[in-house]
Design brief:
By secondary structure, the chain is an alpha/beta fold. 27% of the residues lie in helices and 33% in strands. The chain folds into two domains: 3-54, Spermidine Synthase, Chain: A, domain 2 (Roll), CATH 2.30.140; 58-274, Vaccinia Virus protein VP39 (Rossmann fold), CATH 3.40.50.150. Catalyzes the irreversible transfer of a propylamine group from the amino donor S-adenosylmethioninamine (decarboxy-AdoMet) to putrescine (1,4-diaminobutane) to yield spermidine.
């Protein structure tokens, strides 16, 4: 008997995947977790029925959310990831030889444990000596650490429920205070096709805090609409015009490169309009 997994990407659109095997399902203190093996995209992590990552296309998301800010900063030494318990962002961060410490602040220990068990390709850097794992509330962690991190990556779930507080102006103000003088932050900010109001609101909230605020895009097959936005905010550095040197061999990456770094900031008209004076 064939088994299919359906993910309601919005209330009127469902994406389905043919499943080989269900590897684990668990109710954690915070959410319903499942990891399944699919025919099309390999192993896949779901939280509360929403696809978070898959083996076959995870590199797009993780390379873009990590390397855009890390190649923008001239010498990133200390990096914070809020969320991201699968470990993919940490894996990409630690490819940068300048990074001395990467802190993963994840609220749900079960996510880390199960990703280590079933998604080792993604979680492989979580045991690196430069990685420090803190289990707890990301908002509280940011509030308690001032002027400490060169780069902050908000690798969160969608802006609903427990993650809703990670998508607001008050949190971005806290992030600004947590960053060093030339610090930079990036957050995943949803699909401009399905949730344009979220993209616009987050951009405007970040713009109210950071002197430099930009939107960049990436194509991610498993995410709703397949076209995903990221918002980056900086005190000084403009990621669109970053001078990208060969800090390490980026030829080994699968998605990110120097040309794409700059090209990802070129926005289609309908997305550019979302960033114009909040209109």
């Amino acid at each position: 008997m064939e088994m299919w997994l359906g993910e309601a990407q919005i209330k009127d659109a469902v994406m389905t995947y043919k499943v080989k095997e269900t590897l684990v399902t668990k109710k954690t203190p915070y959410q319903e977790l499942a990891i399944v093996d699919t025919y099309a995209l390999g192993r896949m992590l779901l939280l509360d029925g929403i696809v978070q990552t898959s083996i076959e296309d995870e590199y797009v998301y993780h390379e873009m959310i990590a390397h855009i800010p890390l190649f923008t900063h001239p010498n990133p030494k200390k990096v914070l990831v809020v969320g991201g318990g699968d470990g993919g962002s940490i894996r990409e961060i630690l490819k940068h030889p300048s990074v001395e410490k990467a802190v993963l602040c994840e609220i749900d220990q079960v996510v880390i444990d199960e990703c280590k068990r079933y998604l080792p390709e993604i979680s492989c850097a979580l045991d690196d000596e430069r990685c420090e794992i803190f289990i707890g509330d990301g908002i509280k962690y940011v509030h308690e650490h001032k002027n400490e991190f060169d780069v902050i990556i908000v690798d969160s779930t969608d802006p609903f429920g427990a993650a809703e507080g990670l998508f607001g102006g008050s949190f971005y103000k806290e992030i600004s205070e947590c960053l060093t003088e030339d610090g930079i932050f990036v957050a995943q900010t949803e699909s401009p096709f399905y949730l344009p109001e979220v993209v616009k609101r987050v951009y405007n909230d970040a713009k109210a805090v950071f002197p430099v605020t930009k939107l960049f895009m990436a194509g991610i097959p498993t995410y709703p609409s397949g076209y995903w936005s990221f918002t980056v905010g900086s005190k000084k550095l403009d990621p669109e015009y970053a001078e990208i040197d060969n800090k390490y061999d980026i030829e080994n990456l699968k998605y990110y490169n120097k040309r794409l770094h700059k090209a990802s900031f070129v926005l289609p008209q309908f997305i550019e309009k979302l960033t114009r004076d909040g209109k």
